[in-house]
Every structure is written in structure tokens, then in C-alpha cells.
From TrEMBL:
Occurrences of domain Aminoglycoside phosphotransferase (ranges): 40-208
Species of origin: Virgisporangium aliadipatigenens
Signal peptide span: none
Name of the protein in question: Aminoglycoside phosphotransferase
PANTHER family reported for this sequence: AMINOGLYCOSIDE PHOSPHOTRANSFERASE DOMAIN-CONTAINING PROTEIN-RELATED, AMINOGLYCOSIDE PHOSPHOTRANSFERASE-RELATED-RELATED
InterPro entries the record matches: AGP_Transferase (IPR051678), Aminoglycoside_PTrfase (IPR002575), Kinase-like_dom_sf (IPR011009)
Amino acid sequence: MMAGVSGIEVVVAHSERATLRVGDVFLKVDTDQARIDVEVAAMGMVPVPTPAVLWRKPPVLAIAAVPGTALGRLGEPSTASSAAWTAAGSAVRKLHDAPLPPWPGRSLDEHAARLDAECEWLLANDVLPADLVRRNREIAEAALRPWRPVFVHGDLQLTHVFVDDDEITGVIDWSEAARGDAMFDLAILTLGHEERLDDVAAGYGGDVDLDVIRGWWSLRSLSAIRWLVESGFDPFAPGCEVDVLRARM
């Protein structure tokens, strides 16, 4: 056993991947090595703090823990300061101003097709009230427009952004990094924490389209519910995806 290590923490686990914490080391096990390829490549390219890669032996990637604490958690109030959220917005701007990665991201047509399929599933299985699905499907249309591609994180949940003393100390989980819509990253960062959007926007600077961000809130929530349920997560928990959809009514 490693010195000072009292046990192993399962950070997240589902059929596609699992992350374990052993002391100050995170072990990421992934069934798709292409995702790990993207993660390692992205962390080597971006102008924001990322975890250090310690070693890689497929299917495992070992990375060092970053200092600080996560900006917050979906479904819970964030205790981070306004200055920390503003710093997060500034870090996202640095990422979006960076040179594009050489690999593409999900296209507009792919987003639209997934949204259609997931809304059909939600209605066919009576998962959500029809008026809730249809209203949010209308709101999601704002996100489905051509965008100028930027370097996006692709899964910029607030649990993936770490801060210490109002400074960004690390951004983790880069497996979805690609070319994409800048407003998508801002929407995922503020999902379920709409009250923090002004702080993030202040740090990010101009070019923040609130209608598009709201569209991505609805699109992301509608599109994720089936996967979350099938993977053992609860989108119906207070403050989570279903509550995000209800807030749009």
C-alpha cells in the first residue's frame, strides 16, 4: 500500500468508464482508448491548469490530483465566491481563444438528431410530461444554429473546475474536448446554477448570448436523461436536470 493511503475511493463508475482515487493519484479506466487519447492530447495543448499525467498503461490513465476544491456540485448550492466563478469565466475565455484542436467535435446536425431521438424516448416512455418536453424542445432551438468553432472542454461541469483562494487551480476530465460552440461550455458550467451566470459572463468578457445558453441548458438536460438513468444517476434529484427543465416553464 502507498504511504499515507488508507483506502481506495470510487469517484465515479459506470459501464463505460471508472475513476478511482488512491491518495493523490486518480486512476481512470476507460473502455474507449480514443477518449483517453483526446484527454491526454487536450491537456497538453490548453492554456489553463490541468492535472499532470503520471503514466498511462491502457486501459488505465494515472493523473495527479489538482489542488483546491471543486467549484460546486449539481443539485447543491455552490459555496465558491463570486470571484471564483468570475475566474472560471476568465479561464474558459482563455481556452476558447486557444488554437483549435486538430480533431472535430459533434456537428450541429448530430446535436439536432440526438435531441430529436431523446425527446421521442422521453415521450414514448412517459418519463416526463409532454408539455415539459415540448416547451424545452422549443427553447433548445436557440442553440441549434451555426457557430464559429472554438476549443471547447465539452463537459465543463462545475465539478471539473477546481479553485483555491479564488484562483483556478485545475480543470479536469478532458475526454470530450473538441471543436465546438463556446456557449455550450458556458451553459454546462452554469447548469443548475443560473444565479452564477452573471459572474461567469463577467470573467468571460463579451460575446455571451444568454438565449443560446438557455437553449443549451434545455438541450443538454433533455439529451442526458436517458443516459443518466441507464448509468445509475438520478436526473430527478433536487436541482438536477429535470429541475433545470422545470425552471424553463
